[in-house]
Amino acid sequence: MTWARALGYVGLRLILTGVYVLSHREGGEQTSPVSPQEAASLDLDDVPMEEETPATPYLRVEPGSVVEVEVSSGERRVRAAREGERWVVAEPPGGVVSSDLFAALVSAVLDASGVQVMSAEATRDAEFGLEQPEARVRFVTGNGGGVELLLGNENPAKTGVYGRAGGSPDIVLVGLNARYYVRLILRAAG
Question: Any idea where the domains of the chain sit in the sequence?
């Protein structure tokens, strides 16, 4: 290192130290709006708190009630059935997909709460990639009911994909993990 560079660093350090001292010299010790004695005497049971309401999942299907998952994209389709705690591929015949991928997909989609509703206009399907969705995921419950989720385009921030539950006009932002697991399942099934 040259002497000029070393003197430059020393000068920069002096300038920054001066700025720091000038910006922090006003009050000395920081004070809080409540003295320590007042804080100790506060009874927090008297303070009204907002009640936390648990967020309800968007699809309103209990993950434990799902007995079958079908993932499709274009002509490709994979269907798995739950056998106990494991998922077994039913279609395509001989397809081998890790049970954990189906469990992760069910959890990523059905346990998701706080899903952001983007629009309720069916005329905006093309804008969100839902006119020709990238994928469809169908969850079938033990009582024969269930729900289908369409997955469309990625949002501009690349934090999620747009989706719509079958029959609902709402376009929602679904976590990016849902699309990730769908792609892994389709790739693994061949």
Answer: 63-189
